[in-house]
Structures are given as C-alpha cells and as structure tokens.
C-alpha cells in the first residue's frame, strides 16, 4: 500500500474557475488521473489525483489558490459486475468508514480504482493491512498511467 | 520615550491655562481674518471676547466639511496667501476637496507633533523609517517626513505602492520603523511570502499605522506576522494631517496633542457635549494653526475621551481607537450599524483574515447584507461540509453581534481588492 496523495482546491462556484485551475496543470505538463467536484452555497472543493502531485501542489499554491494535500486510499476493482461490492464489503467488515469516494479507470475498461477518503488514514491502513484487496502501487501505476 | 516632556507631561492646570490663551488668540485671528468665521459668529451674535473659559466653547458654531467647501479653494486662509508655504487637500471623494493651508510656523508645529508621535512608537535618530504613506496632496507622506526629519531619523520616502520594491528595500536597507495604512501593512506581510522575503530577517521594530479604521485583531495579526509593535496614529487634513493623536506603548488609547488641538466629543444627533468616556463624534478646535484655523470642526469620527492617568507618564487626554464614522453608518432594514462592528465580529473567528467586503443590496424592497470573506489557508478544509459549517458559523457570529441576518460568502484568496491607501470595505449597491 503505497502513499497516494490527493490535491484539494477551494473554488468559487462560477464559470471559468475550473478552466483557471486546469490551465496551471496543463502548463506544467501535469496529467490528471481523476477528478471530483463537490459544491455548496456558491463555493466548492475540486479534488484531483494527478501524476506529478508535488509539482502540481507547489504551482497551484504559488498561483495563489487555497490548496491542500492529503493521503487517500486507492483500491483496485475488477471492472465487472460486483467489483465495487467486493471492495465495499471488505471495508465494511473492517469497519472503515468512507467519507468520500470516486473512481478512475486505468487502461480503458480493464482496471478501475476506487479513491476513498477516510477520517483517519493511518488507522484505515492498519485495519486493511491483511485484506485481500489490491491497493495502489506507485511504480506500476506511474508506468501504466503514463503509457 | 517622550519627545517633548515639558509639553506632553505638563501639569493639567497649567496646560488648561495655555490652551485657553491659545484658543482666545485663535478665535480673534479667525474672526478678524476669515470672512466665513466672521459671518458665522455674527449670525449668532457671538464675539471672540465672549469666550472666557472652555465652558463657553459651546456658544461657538460648528464647522463642517461642507462649510469648508464653500470657501474653496483659499477662502478659509487666515493669513495672506503669500504666507502660505504649503497646501494639502482631502481626497475629495465626496465632492470638492477641502484645502488646508500651512504657514512656515504651521509646518514647524506639524513636524513637532509628528516627532512626538514617532518618538511614541519608539523612533530615535538611529532609526530608518520606511514611509509608505502617500506623498503628495495627501498629508500622510509629508507629515511623517517632517516628523522624521525633526527627530533626525533616516527617512525612506518610498510613498505608497510598488509592493515588491517596498519589501526589497525594507530588507536591503534594514528599515526599522514602518509607516503606512494598516491594511497596506497586512498586504505587505502577505506579499512578503510571495516575493520570497523571510519576514524573520527584517529589522522592523515598530509600525505607526493609521489613516483608516482598524481593530485590535488586525493589530495582533500585523504584530505577529511582522514581529513589531503596531501603534495607532490619528489625524486629518483639515486639522493638520497625521499627528493629532498617537497611541503609546500602553495600547490604551491615543494621546491627543491637546496643547495644539482641543478635543470635544458631542452627540452626533443633538450636538450636545458628552461626558468623558461616552462615545460620540469627535470635534476639534485648532489652538495654534495660522494658515487655516479650525473652530469646532466636526470630524465625523466616533470615539470617546479618557482622562485617567496613563502609565507612560503623559498627561495628555486619550481618545479611543476610532470605531466608526457618523457618516458611514449603514442603515440596514432600519437598523444603524457600523462596518467596524462587522469587522470586529468577523475577526473574532479563528482563521479569518481581515480581507472582507460588505455588500449592501436591495433586491426586493428589503436590504440584504452580504459579507464576502476570503478563504485563507487556515479556514480551508478539503471537505465541503466543514467549509459550509465554517460559513454558517461566521454568519451566526455576525448576526449575534449586529442583530441582523447576513449572508456570508466564501471567496477565493486574494480576489478582494487590496488597497495601497484606505481600504474600501463597503459597497452599497442600493439605489436610494
């Protein structure tokens, strides 16, 4: 279970905001692997999983965005019926609560990852130490993600 | 440190004698040389000689900004124009500016009171003053300049603006005293991070901040970020510029240099004098100005006077930090509020930075108050739910403070306009 970091950015909910953020990433040659947006009352939080996480974080910060980095779980799912069920069942057995989750698919229709945000990442990792799920592995991920 | 111990620590009875003497002379000069004053005195049948003690001062008419505009530009001069060596004007945002004329002696007195103010924040001739107040018709720049010269300190007349250069010079020259508006000081601390200047390596020890309203929370923030003592200065163009009053290190109100400026606090509604300690509008009479003497000038600034002895040893009366303007009171759904009340409530919440804007609208016959708050790093959570909780908490807190429901909007950092001079906090979009 290698470390996977997610970038969260504060954004006002109005046209052009996502454009401005993604331009920073594009200009730096950062590839986006997954994105998630949640909004409320005129503002929102945009979350990204990217290939060059540290670079993206520093650049966004420099450009004046309010941005934070936090670790998430990335659990591999088989892209077939029951894939998410398997993962969800294991998490529930281990009493790991999901705060937020979203999916990204690697190698079209072959492998999918469930990005899971939990309250206490260290605790969750410990609980999931011996389960049969496949977790994100940095080396493998980088190579295949970039093609 | 005290610049002029004799004047600043003078025995009160003795000072009162001096003040009365000076008041009488001022009234005589104003009456004899300024047709505006003569007319106003004659209208209510008052002669300068009728003023025998400070109790009689209530007989005198007030002077307002509007009155001064009638005399624009030189109508209020009490000396021939040839004796005026310098002029300054107010910003003129609400109409024609008001003109203040200085004789050679006025400039000397200005240097004297500013030397007192700068000494009060800890300036000596060994210091390097970075003067970030605007030079020009605005009084801030030159006021500080004259005071610094009087002390013999090294003054960097950098004026307002050019933020990056300000910070580089502050770092390279080792500035020890910073003078500018408090909102600009905060902006500088913010910009230092971006420019890559380590504030810990700066030599700043004190700041003399004023020309706009600010709060103790803002003071704490500036002090914490810049590692200096931040003290409040007060003044206005019509009276002399900065140097009417200055806060000492006790941080317990601003000492008014009352041997030159006589303060009163009156009710803004009835214009009756208020007892010490009660909040009202500050009214000032100049006691030594030659160029443009002011008689009972209504400053529109809200404060209270305090005469309890100060630990610093000065016997000068103190005024509270300005908490509002009698003319920028907002009337929202019939309730009078000061923008400073909102600021105070806002800054009581941890993580909120003093970057906000108040927007008043009237969408459907009913006033709405929106407070836009920048989402600082400290305020940010990557969970929308938490941010929403914070937003609601701020709304509730302001509502409790002012008794009105407000809508708080979280906006992105650095999207609200920063000012190099006075910050514009209120945008009133109502078509009244």
Report on the structure:
- The complex is a heterodimer of chains A (147) and B (432).
- Chain A is of the alpha+beta class and 147 residues long.
- Chain A is built from six helices and six strands, in the order E-H-E-E-H-E-H-E-H-E-H-H.
- In chain A, a hairpin with a 2-residue loop joins strand 2 (32-40) and strand 3 (43-50).
- Chain A starts with a strand and ends with a helix.
- In chain A, 27% of the residues are buried.
- The mean pLDDT of chain A is 86.
- Chain B has 432 residues and is of the alpha/beta class.
- Chain B has two domains: 1-326, Rossmann fold (3-Layer(aba) Sandwich); 330-428, GMP Synthetase, Chain A, domain 3 (2-Layer Sandwich).
- In chain B, strand 5, helix 8 (182-195) and strand 6 (206-210) form a beta-alpha-beta unit.
- The relative contact order of chain B is 0.11.
- The model of chain B has no long low-confidence stretch (mean pLDDT 92).
- The A-B interface holds A 6, 8, 10-12, 38-45, 47, 62, 64-66, 68, 70, 99-100 and B 194, 375-377, 380, 382-385, 387-388, 391, 409-415.
Layout: helices, strands, pairs:
The complex is a heterodimer of chains A (147) and B (432).
Chain A: E1 4-12, H1 17-27, E2 32-40, E3 43-50, H2 53-62, E4 67-78, H3 83-93, E5 100-106, H4 107-110, E6 111-117, H5 121-127, H6 138-146
Antiparallel strand pairs in A: 1-3, 1-4, 2-3, 4-6, 5-6
Chain B: H1 5-8, H2 12-33, H3 35-43, H4 65-70, E1 84-89, E2 99-103, H5 104-120, E3 128-131, H6 139-151, E4 154-156, H7 163-173, E5 177-180, H8 182-195, E6 206-210, H9 216-226, E7 229-236, E8 241-247, E9 254-256, E10 261-266, E11 280-286, E12 297-303, E13 305-306, E14 318-319, E15 324-325, E16 330-332, E17 335-337, H10 339-347, E18 356-361, E19 368-374, H11 384-402, E20 407-411, E21 426-428
Helix pairs in contact in B: 2-3, 5-6, 7-8, 8-9, 10-11
């Amino acid at each position: 279970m290698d470390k996977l970091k997610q970038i969260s950015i504060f954004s006002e909910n109005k046209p052009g905001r996502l454009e401005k953020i993604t331009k920073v990433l594009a200009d730096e040659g950062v590839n986006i692997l997954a994105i998630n947006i949640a909004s409320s009352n005129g503002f929102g939080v945009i979350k990204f999983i990217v290939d060059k996480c540290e670079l993206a974080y520093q650049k966004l910060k420099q450009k004046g965005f309010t941005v934070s980095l936090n670790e998430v779980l990335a659990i591999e799912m088989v892209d077939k019926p029951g894939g998410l069920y398997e993962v969800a069942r294991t998490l529930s057995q281990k009493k790991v609560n999901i705060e937020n989750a979203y999916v990204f698919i690697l190698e079209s229709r072959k492998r999918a990852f469930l990005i899971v945000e939990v309250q206490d990442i260290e605790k969750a990792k410990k609980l999931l130490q011996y389960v049969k799920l496949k977790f994100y592995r940095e080396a493998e991920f980088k190579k295949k993600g970039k093609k | 440190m005290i610049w002029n111990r004799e004047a600043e620590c003078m025995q009160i009875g003795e000072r009162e004698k001096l003040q009365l003497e000076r008041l009488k002379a001022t009234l005589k000069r104003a009456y004899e040389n300024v047709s505006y004053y003569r007319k106003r005195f004659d209208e209510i049948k008052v002669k300068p000689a009728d003023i025998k003690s400070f109790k009689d001062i209530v007989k005198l008419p007030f002077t307002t900004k509007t009155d001064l505009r009638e005399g624009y530009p030189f109508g209020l001069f009490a000396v021939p124009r040839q004796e005026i060596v310098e002029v300054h004007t107010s910003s003129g945002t609400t109409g024609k500016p008001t003109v203040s004329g200085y004789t050679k002696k006025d400039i000397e007195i200005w240097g004297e009171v500013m030397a007192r103010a700068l000494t009060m924040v800890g300036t000596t001739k060994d210091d390097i003053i970075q003067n970030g107040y605007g030079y020009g018709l605005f009084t801030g720049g030159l006021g500080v300049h004259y005071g610094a010269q009087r002390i013999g300190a090294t003054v960097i007349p950098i004026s307002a603006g050019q933020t990056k250069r300000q910070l580089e010079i502050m770092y390279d020259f080792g500035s020890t005293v910073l003078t500018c508006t408090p909102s600009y000081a905060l902006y500088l601390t913010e910009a230092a991070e971006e420019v890559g200047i380590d504030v810990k390596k700066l030599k700043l020890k004190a700041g003399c901040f004023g020309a706009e309203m600010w709060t103790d929370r803002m003071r704490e923030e500036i002090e914490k970020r810049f590692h200096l003592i931040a003290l409040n200065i007060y003044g206005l163009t019509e009276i002399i510029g900065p140097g009417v009053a200055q806060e000492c290190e006790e941080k317990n109100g601003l000492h008014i240099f009352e041997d030159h400026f006589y303060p009163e606090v009156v009710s803004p509604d009835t214009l009756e004098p208020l007892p010490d300690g009660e909040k009202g509008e500050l009214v000032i009479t100049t006691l030594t100005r030659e160029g443009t003497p002011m008689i009972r000038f209504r400053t529109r600034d809200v404060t209270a006077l305090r005469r309890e002895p100060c630990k610093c040893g000065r016997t000068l009366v103190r005024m509270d930090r300005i908490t509002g303007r009698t003319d920028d009171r907002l009337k929202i759904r019939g309730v009078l509020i000061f923008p400073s009340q909102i600021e105070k409530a806002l800054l009581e919440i941890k993580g909120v930075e003093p970057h906000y804007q108040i927007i008043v609208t009237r969408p459907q016959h009913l006033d709405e108050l929106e407070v836009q708050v920048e989402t600082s790093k400290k305020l940010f959570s990557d969970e929308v739910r938490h941010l929403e909780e914070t937003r609601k908490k701020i709304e509730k807190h302001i509502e409790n403070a002012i008794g009105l429901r407000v809508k708080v909007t979280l906006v992105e950092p650095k999207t609200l306009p920063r000012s190099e001079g006075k910050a514009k906090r209120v945008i009133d979009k109502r078509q009244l």
